[in-house]
């Protein structure tokens, strides 16, 4: 459909779209009611996954199903998606911010010769033009940007946009456009799994717990992990904790680590250095526990407790357990 | 092996940024400029590859106004062999695509076997130029690289990229583009000798016309910058630990609806 | 002289600052508390080229000028005065005189390892009875064929315990007074050379201050730097340059304390406003800023004169005097701005205050600097003013 709002599907690599797609589709539907289409590049889509996209509000699913799309390679994805875009002329192409979408969408925009707004946190129509808002300068300012021509390509920061409510029974028409699968130059060698902590991925989690230098040592993170399991939170760290070797650096939150924007951020023994704030200040609700009442993190915290974290954390775990058992 | 590294000069993260009078750019007075930290990982990796192979050339390229020379000089001080400065008013409102086009044009002239970039520039944070460069060049690309090793023949690079849940390892035929992620290496400090030697190294000025690039309007334009909306004032929860924790859990549940 | 740093000096400053912030700051309080010599970071400073900054490249140094040197030294001192004094002694008091007065063979053997940061040097002039009056040397060196035999003791020698080489000043001819003083390099491990007591100090606690003892210590005549009787001139030339370094150290200490005071004045509240809104606090901060800028300019001027090959003895004395007095005043006031907190170990201004004091003492006390300035101005040398 010309002028559709495309939503590029991020999936769990097992045939189902990730939950963040409800946010992308929800926002696209708000801007372009009835014109939302999901575009899914995958080796295998599940029936349940296709159904899910329909329930979230996609009118049509363009399914590019081919083994060549896995593992993901930007060269292959961009070529296939650009061909399809040339045929379909979408008005906009949206994708959630994930490590692969970030690269893919940038490459696609270059191939289409159009602008890109990465990591957008707000959209508005200004007449017949889309205006996106995105954080810049480590989240210290917001920049409003607009495109010279469509398709308007953008990635959307997770946990910012209101997710679409699933409407049971609503379905999308599924089309499988023909495609000449482009060859890949880069060859897959292997995948090395991270040792799973059983907790959600840092950048995707709705709740993030962060432990700083105040944790005193690597052995103490178990209390945060226990709290994390109770409330379904990812556990991250400040650079001080990462530099001390207490946590692998992929758990680092901040300017030189992961940028997160969860619904709830809980910082324990984190002072709130500007570089740390840069990675989490857009969290919806910020809780800080620090024994130093002057710690800068209290300046941006919605709720603070001035106390020893080693007393607070077990108590919190207990209280949340009680609450969630109800 | 010739390696090209793209570097962007950005405001130091500790500096306060203020919106300029035009409402679209920042007031640059009093700003301390640094090389974007991810680009330092790229420079370091390029230098290590060169050192490991015992030969080669590392060329640093940056697009931006006159002040960008400082950033190039610091890359030369770290050990890059020479630098190219894309310095032309035609690029003063370049978006990622225009930036990538200019860089791609230089890369075509220089014909390196490997291009190393940063994961993202920490001011505009698009994380796009690297992929766009690869597209314009038609080269393979790997993002968020945690490891990179060139094979003995210098024909492929084996790179491990960070993705949610793990690392994916690929062999990319050269030439290729890689985006450096933190953790790839620990960038060196420039030594005094390196700093003193940098002034003898060349920084070549390149204009748009030298690359045969006609000025075209940016595909993405900035409408305006705005300050963050102020956060509602926070609240320190008083009381002994059990009382405070109970109140926190209640407030998160009932007031903030965060749990 | 221009006020702007060259782009090279800016890069040197940025590197020194980044190094100080990321490598030194995390350990600065702890090495002060434990009086621990920071081998790891000093070694890395050597690798960066800071430990032999002013020594020509030919002898393993970086070949930077005095201006670049004071800029870098200030950055190091801003974070840790102990690291700064180790750097300053290696460069100005040990390295520079050997580069200037040594033979090529001596430079190869005694200078190259120190300039490249692989080993440290120290400068041994002071004796129990010879402090301000350095002419009153009692350590004796007696010629014996191809050797000299040294007897005596040196006191308060910075890096005395850690150094591999000592530049030692001895009397070779008592009759001639200070014209009978001669300089030697003594290597660690030489028979008859031992390190005595390491002092427990108020400030610069991570730098070791030791006693050197010479007891029938035989050293080859090739270890003599310059001619017999030239030692006092060598010492004074070294100290003239060294004073510029100490001035930079003082400016750095003051700057660190000042920055923390400004930050504190923005955060701490009293009587319902941040203390920076109180006029008397503003007054203190303004005085600090003016004095530091004055001290920095005097220091840069002395360095510029040295770089230009012009006389700088008076300018160096002026800079050291003013910078040291400024450091003491600024760090005292920094504690004032911090109130009671400033008196507590956890706050860095407490360390800055203790570290500042030494700058008024070593390489000539403040009184001695006044003496030097006055003596020269009466002869018509106004320090290039
Ligand atoms: C270029 C650069 C990039 C950087 N990038 C990042 C980044 O991406 N992410 C990042 O986090 N940092 C980053 N930093 C580092 C940042 O400046 C801070 O040093 C770091 O965030 C501090 O971590 P912290 O809060 O854990 O430690 P600290 O600042 O040491 O704070 C520890 C806190 O724990 C509290 N505490 C101690 N014990 C207890 C207890 N028992 N109970 C309660 N509270 C306690 C203390 O009061 C203190 O406030 C960067 C720095 C630079 C220079
Ligand atoms: C005065 C001014 C006006 C601007 N106007 C616009 C505008 O109208 N529209 C708009 O979209 N943007 C505009 N910008 C922003 C600017 O164009 C962006 O910096 C550019 O889009 C690159 O994106 P990025 O910095 O997010 O780089 P990223 O995509 O995050 O960078 C990834 C990597 O690419 C390389 N790289 C990026 N930029 C450069 C560079 N300049 N030189 C060398 N390597 C580089 C680096 O290796 C970097 O790590 C303006 C900037 C200024 C200062
Ligand atoms: C931590 C530390 C490190 C040191 N490092 C070194 C080193 O590496 N190498 C080295 O050789 N020495 C070193 N010294 C020694 C230092 O240079 C001397 O302590 C200093 O020169 C003062 O000498 P003094 O202690 O004997 O004091 P004195 O000379 O006894 O002075 C006592 C007081 O009398 C005043 N005074 C003396 N003469 C006059 C005068 N003519 N007019 C006016 N007032 C006068 C002084 O200003 C001072 O106030 C170090 C000292 C310390 C404490």
Q: What is the CATH class name of the largest domain in chain C?
A: Mainly Alpha
The multimeric state of the shown protein is heterotrimer
The tally of domains of chain C stands at 3
Number of DSSP strand runs of chain C: 10
- CATH H-tier superfamily of the largest domain in chain A: HUPs
Helix content class of chain A = 25-40%
**Could you tell me which ligands this complex binds, including any ions or cofactors?**
flavin-adenine dinucleotide
* Net shape of chain C: globular
What gyration radius of chain C follows from the Cα positions, in whole Å?
A: 21 Å
What can you tell me about this protein's structure?
The complex is a heterotrimer of chains A (about 325), B (about 260) and C (about 375). Chain A is of the alpha/beta class and about 325 residues long. Chain A is about 30% helix and about 25% strand. Chain A has nine helices and 16 strands. Chain A has helices at about 20-30, 45-55, 75-90, 100-110, 220-230, 240-245, 275, 295-300, 310-325; strands at about 5-10, 35-40, 60-65, 90-95, 115-120, 120-125, 130-135, 140-145, 150-155, 175, 185-195, 205-210, 235, 265-270, 285-290, 305. In chain A, the strands form three sheets. A seven-stranded parallel beta sheet of chain A has the order 5-9-4-1-2-3-10, with helices on both faces. Chain A has a five-stranded parallel beta sheet with strand order 13-12-14-15-16. In chain A, α7 (about 275) links the parallel β14 (about 265-270) and β15. In chain A, α3 packs across α4. The mean pLDDT of chain A is about 95. Chain B folds into two domains: about 1-210, HUPs (Rossmann fold), CATH 3.40.50; about 230-260, no CATH class. Chain B has six helices and 13 strands. Chain B has helices at about 35-55, 70-80, 95-110, 130-135, 190-200, 240-255, and strands spanning about 1-5, 10, 35, 55-65, 80-85, 115-120, 140-150, 155-165, 165-175, 175-180, 205, 220-225, 235. Chain B is globular, with a radius of gyration of 22 Å. Chain B starts with a strand and ends with a helix. With about 375 residues, chain C is of the alpha+beta class. Chain C folds into three domains: about 5-120, Butyryl-Coa Dehydrogenase, subunit A, domain 1 (Orthogonal Bundle); about 120-230, Butyryl-CoA Dehydrogenase, subunit A, domain 2 (Beta Barrel), CATH 2.40.110.10; about 230-380, Butyryl-CoA Dehydrogenase, subunit A, domain 3 (Up-down Bundle), CATH 1.20.140.10. Chain C is about 50% helix and about 15% strand. Chain C has a four-stranded mixed beta sheet with strand order 1-4-5-8. In chain C, β2 and β3 form a beta hairpin. In chain C, α6 packs parallel to α8 (about 315-340). The relative contact order of chain C is 0.12. The mean pLDDT of chain C is about 95. At the A-B interface, α3, α4, β5, β7 and β8 of A face α3, α4, β7, β8 and β9 of B. β11 of chain A pairs antiparallel with β9 (about 165-175) of chain B, so a sheet runs across the interface. The complex binds flavin-adenine dinucleotide (3 copies).
């Amino acid at each position: 459909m010309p002028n559709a709002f495309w939503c590029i599907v991020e999936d769990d690599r097992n045939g189902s779209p990730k939950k963040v797609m409800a946010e992308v589709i929800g926002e696209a539907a708000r801007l372009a009611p009835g014109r939302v289409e999901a575009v899914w590049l995958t080796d295998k889509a599940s029936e349940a996954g296709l159904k899910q996209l329909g329930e979230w509000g996609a009118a049509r699913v363009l399914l590019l199903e081919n083994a060549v799309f896995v593992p993901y390679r930007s060269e292959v994805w961009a070529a296939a998606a650009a061909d399809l875009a040339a045929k379909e002329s979408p008005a906009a192409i949206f994708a959630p911010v994930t490590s692969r979408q970030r690269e893919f969408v940038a490459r696609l925009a270059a191939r289409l010769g159009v602008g890109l707004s990465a990591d957008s946190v707000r959209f508005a129509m200004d007449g017949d033009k889309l205006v996106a808002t995105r954080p810049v300068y480590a989240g210290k300012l917001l920049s409003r940007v607009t495109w010279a021509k469509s398709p308007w390509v953008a990635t959307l920061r997770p946990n910012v946009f209101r997710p679409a409510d699933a409407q049971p029974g609503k379905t999308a028409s599924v089309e499988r456009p023909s495609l000449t699968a482009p060859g890949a130059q880069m060859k897959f060698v292997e995948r090395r799994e991270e040792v799973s902590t059983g907790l959600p991925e840092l950048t995707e989690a709705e709740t993030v717990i962060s432990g700083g230098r105040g944790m005193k040592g690597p052995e103490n993170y178990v209390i945060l992990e226990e709290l994390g399991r109770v409330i379904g939170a990812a556990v991250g760290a400040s650079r001080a904790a990462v530099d001390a070797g207490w946590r692998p650096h992929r758990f680092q939150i901040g300017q030189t680590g992961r940028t997160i924007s969860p619904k709830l951020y809980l910082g324990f023994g984190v002072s709130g250095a500007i570089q740390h704030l840069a990675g989490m200040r857009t969290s919806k609700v910020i809780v800080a526990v620090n024994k130093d009442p002057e710690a800068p993190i209290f300046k941006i915290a919605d709720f603070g407790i001035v106390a020893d974290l080693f007393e607070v954390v077990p108590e919190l775990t207990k209280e949340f357990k009680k609450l969630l058992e109800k | 092996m010739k390696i090209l590294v793209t570097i962007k000069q950005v405001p130091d993260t500790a500096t306060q940024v203020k919106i300029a009078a035009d409402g679209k750019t920042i007031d640059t007075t009093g700003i301390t400029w640094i090389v974007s930290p991810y680009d330092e990982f790229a420079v370091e990796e390029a230098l290590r590859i060169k050192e490991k192979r015992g030969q080669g050339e590392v060329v640093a390229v940056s697009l931006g106004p006159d002040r960008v020379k400082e950033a190039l000089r610091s890359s030369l001080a770290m050990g890059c062999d020479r630098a190219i400065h894309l310095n032309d008013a035609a690029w003063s409102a370049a978006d990622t695509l225009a930036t990538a086009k200019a860089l791609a044009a230089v890369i075509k002239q220089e014909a390196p076997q490997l291009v190393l970039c940063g994961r993202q520039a920490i001011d505009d944070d698009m994380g796009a130029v690297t992929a766009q460069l690869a597209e314009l060049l038609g080269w393979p690309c790997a993002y968020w690289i945690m490891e990179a090793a060139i094979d003995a023949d210098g024909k492929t690079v084996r790179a491990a990229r960070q993705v949610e849940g793990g690392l994916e390892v690929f062999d990319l035929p050269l030439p290729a583009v890689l985006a450096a992620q933190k953790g790839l290496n620990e960038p060196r400090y420039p030594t005094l000798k390196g700093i003193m030697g940098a002034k003898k190294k060349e920084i070549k000025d390149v204009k748009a016309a030298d690359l045969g690039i006609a000025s075209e309007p940016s595909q993405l334009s900035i409408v305006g910058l705005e300050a963050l909306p102020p956060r509602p004032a926070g609240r320190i929860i008083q009381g002994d630990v059990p009382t405070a924790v109970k109140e926190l859990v209640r407030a998160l549940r009932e007031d903030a609806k965060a749990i | 002289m221009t006020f702007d740093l060259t782009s090279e000096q800016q890069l040197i400053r940025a590197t020194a600052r980044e190094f100080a912030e990321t490598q030194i700051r995390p350990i600065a309080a702890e090495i002060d508390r434990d009086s621990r010599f920071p081998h790891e970071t000093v070694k890395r400073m050597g690798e960066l080229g800071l430990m032999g900054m002013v020594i020509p490249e030919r002898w393993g140094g970086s070949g930077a000028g005095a201006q670049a040197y004071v800029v870098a030294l200030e950055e190091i001192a801003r974070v840790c005065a102990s690291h700064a004094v180790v750097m300053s002694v290696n460069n100005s008091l040990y390295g520079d005189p050997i580069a200037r007065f040594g033979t090529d063979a001596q430079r190869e053997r005694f200078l190259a390892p120190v300039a490249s940061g692989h080993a440290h040097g120290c400068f041994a002039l002071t004796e129990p009875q010879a402090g301000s009056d350095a002419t009153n040397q009692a350590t004796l060196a007696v010629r014996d064929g191809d050797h000299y035999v040294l007897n005596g003791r040196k006191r308060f020698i910075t890096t005395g315990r850690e150094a591999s080489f000592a530049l030692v000043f001895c009397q070779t001819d008592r009759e001639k007074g200070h014209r009978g003083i001669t300089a030697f390099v003594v290597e660690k491990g030489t028979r008859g050379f031992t390190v005595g007591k390491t002092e427990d100090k108020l400030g610069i606690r991570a730098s070791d201050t030791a006693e050197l003892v010479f007891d029938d210590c035989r050293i080859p005549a090739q270890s003599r730097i310059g001619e017999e009787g030239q030692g006092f001139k060598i010492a004074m030339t070294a100290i003239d340059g060294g004073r510029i370094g100490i001035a930079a150290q003082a400016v750095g200490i003051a700057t660190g304390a000042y920055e923390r005071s400004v930050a504190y004045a923005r955060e701490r509240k009293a009587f319902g406003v941040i203390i920076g809104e109180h006029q008397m606090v503003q007054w203190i901060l303004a005085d600090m800023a003016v004095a530091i800028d004055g001290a920095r300019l005097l220091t840069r001027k002395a360095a510029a004169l040295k770089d230009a090959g012009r006389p700088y003895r008076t300018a160096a004395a002026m800079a050291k005097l003013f910078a040291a007095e400024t450091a003491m005043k600024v760090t005292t006031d920094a504690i004032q701005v911090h109130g009671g907190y400033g008196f507590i170990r956890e706050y860095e201004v407490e360390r800055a205050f203790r570290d500042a004091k030494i700058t008024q003492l070593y390489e000539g006390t403040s009184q001695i600097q006044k003496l030097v300035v006055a003596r020269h101005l009466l002869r018509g040398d106004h320090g290039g003013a």
